[in-house]
Design a protein that fits this description.
YbaK protein, alpha+beta, binds adenosine-5'-triphosphate, six-stranded mixed β-sheet, Rossmann fold, nine-stranded mixed β-sheet, binds magnesium ion, BirA Bifunctional Protein, domain 2, about 30% strand
């Protein structure tokens, strides 16, 4: 029987200053985690119990779709990463190490290379496919900004799965199974989440969803449609070109606009709406300068710009680079007359009439700019960020925005890795064919933190029953009272025997202290054993989530508690 007096869960009265969001604050305060270094934590016993429960749910759902568990090494040789070119691409986020023979290794940030080289050695025939493998293991990413406790760690627990199929149809079937399994996992963990379409980056093509837990502290922005089930990461959301009412094109003119460097300033100065201006953003990538044009009230979607340019790197250009390439100052950049600079325009810009834009001369703007007449961009595509109330790309209804925590992602890899690593099989006709792959991740430790972000109040955590560290704590009001203690032990034993996980708060503390700690840790139920229990043979059960108090008789209480837990 677990007794709180023996439990290694050192609770804190004060909120540690370094913790900014509820999950980080509460896990520290409830004695669940302790920091070893930035983004690197020990999981104390309560946290480990929660993690094991999330893992058990993940395992059940993975096994349900015939995924098989394996365990690959964390330490990975550089060679396999060199084969795909990712040894260089992964950059500073990869933890690298060297052995005594000066051979290079990394701590696995992900396992595509590892699993593909494993499978290519053993799978030869179409008869061995489809095959889905998964593992639950620590991952290592030297994040630029590890923060928010377990939310963005440098060492964290991930479930990663990989599917191998004969063809695209097989991949789609596996992808859909995984999507359903993920939906089940997060539903069973008691989370309010949305699967959203996600950017599939340089791999291109359709086929990635992120599972987003809706929470204020989420680092991702998502859009969703209240009318249909469309949802997307803002980076991915498709947009329709806005076509304004046609106007007569006025002759291009240049005017003085002293110090009018921002869209707000120029719109106020000319007394026009920001929609009538063109915003020119100067970026730098490995091939030089890029000017991105969006309407004044829009923002550039940098992910879409990166995808359109097919570049690796993209940063805002600095003043010197701008001055050197364009004899202009930041704030007065414009596309007209620009030469030898890549210009990418959002498609909405090309539909504008009589707009205002920088003239590439200090303190000057063009007015009556008609893009279709006055300049020719190198590329015209959708590069603006979606905004609240933009029409839903599926049904046209105004979309809403929310913040999300990415707890999982599913991804069609197609043959990206199997081609790079020559993971082929012989099809029915004996033809060598690359396997068609998918990869699928769940942030197990992040899911624990995300659950707290959604389930807490001013007193502490409120665990959803399926992932709670214990279902109930048993609190004898007076631990020095032997009769109370004995009864408490009996109840605790009886419950544990019937798989209700109960922990006994046997500490010699005031009842108030025990209640406070129980609320902080977030057990779904508190069972209170006091003098009345002995006199009247009833005890009190308090529901953490609702504050509701239920009285149960000392007979038959086990099934009542089981039912109560099911109803929460
Ligand atoms: P992010 O965009 O948040 O950095 P990612 O897209 O790089 O995450 P994936 O490669 O898709 O992450 O990893 C699968 C899952 O692992 C993510 O959905 C997330 O839940 C989790 N995860 C990724 N990075 C971290 C981290 N630094 N700390 C905790 N969990 C993480
Ligand atoms: Mg991801």
């Amino acid at each position: 029987m677990m007794r709180v007096s023996r439990l290694y869960a050192p609770t804190l009265r004060e909120t540690p200053a370094e913790a900014e969001i509820p999950s980080h604050q509460l896990m520290l305060r409830a004695g669940m985690i302790r920091k070893a270094a930035g983004g690197i934590y020990s999981y104390l016993p309560l946290a480990l119990r929660i993690l094991k429960k999330i893992e058990a749910i993940v395992r059940e759902e993975m096994n349900e779709i015939d995924a098989q568990e394996l365990l690959m090494p964390i330490i990975q040789p550089a060679e396999i990463w060199q084969e795909t070119g990712r040894w260089d691409v992964y950059g500073d986020e990869m933890f690298r190490l060297c052995d005594r023979h000066k051979r290079n290794f990394c701590l696995g940030p992900t396992h595509e290379e590892m699993i593909t080289t494993l499978v290519r050695g053993d799978v030869r025939s179409y008869r061995q496919l489809p095959l889905t493998l998964y593992q639950i293991q620590n991952k290592y990413r030297d994040e630029i900004r590890p923060r928010f406790g377990l939310m963005r760690g440098r060492e964290f627990i991930m479930k990663d799965a990989y599917s191998f199929d004969r063809d695209e149809a097989g991949l789609t079937a596996n992808y859909n199974k995984m999507y359903t399994a993920y939906t089940n996992v997060f539903t069973r963990c008691g989370l309010n989440f949305r699967p959203v379409e996600a950017d599939s980056g340089a791999i291109g093509g359709s086929g990635s969803h992120e599972f987003m837990v809706i929470a204020e502290s989420g680092e991702a922005s998502i859009v969703y449609c209240p009318a249909c089930d469309y949802g997307a990461n803002v980076e991915k959301a498709e947009l329709h070109t806005i076509v304004p009412q046609q106007e007569e094109m006025l002759p291009l003119d240049i005017i003085d606009t002293p110090k009018m460097k921002t869209i707000e300033a120029i719109s106020a100065y000319l007394n026009i709406a920001p929609q009538k201006t063109i915003k020119a953003m100067a970026y730098q990538n490995e091939n030089g300068l890029v000017i991105a044009l969006v309407r004044g009230d829009h923002e550039v979607n940098e992910i879409k710009l990166i995808n359109a340019l097919g570049c690796i790197d993209l940063t805002l250009a600095n003043e010197e680079a701008i001055a050197e390439a364009m004899q202009s100052a930041a704030g007065f950049i414009g596309p007209i007359g620009l030469q030898e600079v890549m210009i990418v325009a959002d498609s909405t810009v090309m539909e504008m009439y009589n707009a205002v834009c920088g003239a590439n001369l200090p303190d000057k703007h063009y007015i009556h700019v008609n893009p279709s007449r006055d300049f020719k961009p190198n590329k015209v595509i959708d590069i603006r960020l979606i905004q609240e109330n933009d029409p839903c790309p599926h049904c046209g209804h105004p979309v809403k925005m929310a913040r999300g925590i990415e707890v999982g992602q599913v991804f069609k890899l197609h043959t990206k890795y199997s081609q790079a690593l020559q993971a082929t099989y012989l099809d029915e006709k004996g033809k060598e064919t690359p396997m068609v792959m998918g990869c699928y991740g769940i942030g197990v430790s992040r899911t624990m933190a995300a659950a707290i972000e959604q389930h807490n109040d001013e007193h502490g955590i409120i665990w959803p029953v399926p992932i709670a560290p214990y279902h109930t704590v048993i609190i004898p009001i007076n631990s020095k009272d032997e009769a109370q203690m004995q009864l408490a032990e009996t109840v605790c034993k009886a419950l544990n025997q019937e798989n209700v996980e109960a922990i006994l708060d046997d500490r010699n503390e005031r009842a108030g202290v025990k209640f406070k700690d129980a609320d902080l840790i977030g057990y779904p139920l508190k069972i209170v054993i006091g003098p009345k229990t002995l006199q009247e043979q009833v005890f009190e059960v308090k529901v953490r989530r609702t504050g509701e108090v239920i009285f149960l008789s000392l007979e038959n209480y086990v099934s009542e508690i089981q039912n109560l837990l099911k109803s929460l």
